[in-house]
Amino acid sequence: MPPYDPTWNLDSLYPGGSRSPAFRSHLDSCDTALDACGRSLSELPKRPGPEWAKAILDLQEVGARLWDANGFVECLEAQDVSDALAGQLAGRVQKMNARRAMLLTEMESLLLAASEGEWKELLARPDLSAIAFTLNELREVARLKMPPEKERLAEELAVDGYHAWGRMYEKIAGSRRVEFEEDGKKLALSMGQLHNRLENPDRNVRKRAFEKMESAWGEVAELAAIALNSQAGYRLSLYKNRGLESVLAEPLRINRIRRETLEAMWSAVADESPRLVPYMKEKARLLGIERLAWCDLAAPVGSSDRKFTYGEAAEFILEQFGRFSGELRDFARGALEGRWIEAEDRAGKRAGGFCTDFPLKGETRIFMTFGGSFGGVSTLGHELGHAYHSWLVKDLPFWATQYPMTLAETASTFSEMLLSDAALEAASSDRERLALLRIQADDAVTMMMNLRARFLFETSFFDARRTKNLTVEELNAEMRKAEETAYCGALDPNGYHPLFWASKLHFYITGTPFYNFPYVFGYLFSNGIYARAVEEGPAFARKYAKLLRETGRGTCEDIARKHLGVDLAKPEFWKRAADRAVEKADRFVALAEGV
Ligand SMILES: [Zn+2]
């Protein structure tokens, strides 16, 4: 077994870490390029021509350069949280990103000046045809907006009048501390730490943590309600002035799907969700309780003690990837050997995992902390899926590589599924099988029930908010109603989480409203693709790679029609996808009954 180095090599990108002179000169070149873009946009002739093409391509190029810069500072900050220089660099990059965003908005409105004929002619140019999809999209965005001077004002006012509500919520949530007794010690836990206690095997710990959570959020619910009502009010006014009737119009456009598709997906989820109820009953039985409460949803069942060294994890992943696609396996081996992965378990690293790509170099870097559990293997496989996706698009123009959130998790989730299925096959006891199936069934519950509850709440909240500010009691009632529907009434009547709207950060992410359905879309889309891979065997690997390659160049519907031959606006595809997800829950029930 080759000894893979668990630390990454950043020097091959820009040597010298946060003191890298090469990286500083890269940032200088980004500044110069932004200046040049600003000048050429201000001097742009009224009618399209070669100057337009140049301005467009220059702005795209600056985007790719800044993407590289973002990735590098993200890596620096993650590998050593005490690196103050990296923090400074991040600040500089952030400012440049904001400048680029402004230039893009400016360009969007300029594109509107072209007549239909001129526009067609422009897009037919050989240097622009590969990014025609993105350019059409930019023009469409501009058309849906108010006149540029109004948009500029709205953007400026949003900093303090809209995004500030999100920042205030983060401050409230981040500064909360709750006293919690554990092993005879009194701890002051953050809300995140308290939330982690919901995964504790001991129900008393989970219950106590949940009660503390509810009362802690209850104390700040009035403030959270002001933040939520105000930011929703801002959005509704903005949409009214842009002439948009539905609050979903913008989220749907950003995610490149149509309303019919979203409806088809949710109708399949609604139809299939009741099939998760027997699983929830069985899980409750194994936990020794009548019915699950919110605090039991993430509780572990069974146990998987299998430990992996980093080398064993790598070999396991390569073997499983290879069973699906030689290309995927070879890519992953290259990433491991080329030291694209930082997985070492050491102090001073940031928590969590990510994969970031460097479009100028055609490389990616993966960050995580590998602890030796199967969860760690799964994370490594997940991030390698992202990296493979980036690798497949690395020779395309930058804008043609930018996929929406709905498609961003396709390759990562798919890779994870390859590994979890293989682990299930290799499991040596029923206890281990139950533990693995539990993780997959809980994923299905999270995606199909928890995320649906968030979507149902957000939809009805926005409806009600059109006429009034909602009180804490009204928000609680809306939330509870959404949870009862989404969980098919299967939770203990006293075990719902009415303050979920206050505790979940996602409702307060002002940059991305409805930060819920894209998760479900991505999860089910991957399940649907996986079902096809199983059905079609090794021949599917080529189709899969082609589909991934096009994720930045079309709507989700177009991509699915072209590469899978399915209509996403009809429930069939989604039903099959949900069926695959729910099947894990069925298997859990069948297995648990014999234990
Ligand atoms: Zn991911």
- Adjacency order of strands in the biggest sheet: 3-5-4
Q: Mean pLDDT score, rounded?
A: 94
Tally of helical segments: 24
Low-pLDDT segments, ≥5 res: none
What is the structural class?
mainly alpha
Textual characterization of the structure:
With 595 residues, the protein is mainly α. It has a domain at 17-163: Up-down Bundle (Butyryl-CoA Dehydrogenase, subunit A, domain 3). 65% of the residues lie in helices and 4% in strands. It has helices spanning 21-42, 50-79, 84-111, 116-123, 132-144, 148-161, 163-175, 191-196, 203-242, 249-254, 259-272, 277-286, 310-324, 326-337, 374-392, 405-408, 410-426, 430-465, 472-486, 500-503, 517-536, 540-549, 556-564, 571-593; strands at residues 177-182, 185-190, 341-342, 354-358, 363-367. A hairpin with a 4-residue loop joins strand 4 and strand 5 (363-367). The chain starts with 20 loop residues before the first helix and ends with a helix. The model has no long low-confidence stretch (mean pLDDT 94). Residues 382, 386, 409, 412 line the site of zinc ion.
Compose a concise summary of this entry.
By secondary structure, this protein is mainly alpha-helical.
Write the layout of secondary structure elements.
Layout: H1 21-42, H2 50-79, H3 84-111, H4 116-123, H5 132-144, H6 148-161, H7 163-175, E1 177-182, E2 185-190, H8 191-196, H9 203-242, H10 249-254, H11 259-272, H12 277-286, H13 310-324, H14 326-337, E3 341-342, E4 354-358, E5 363-367, H15 374-392, H16 405-408, H17 410-426, H18 430-465, H19 472-486, H20 500-503, H21 517-536, H22 540-549, H23 556-564, H24 571-593
The site of zinc ion (ZN) has 4 residues, from helix 15.
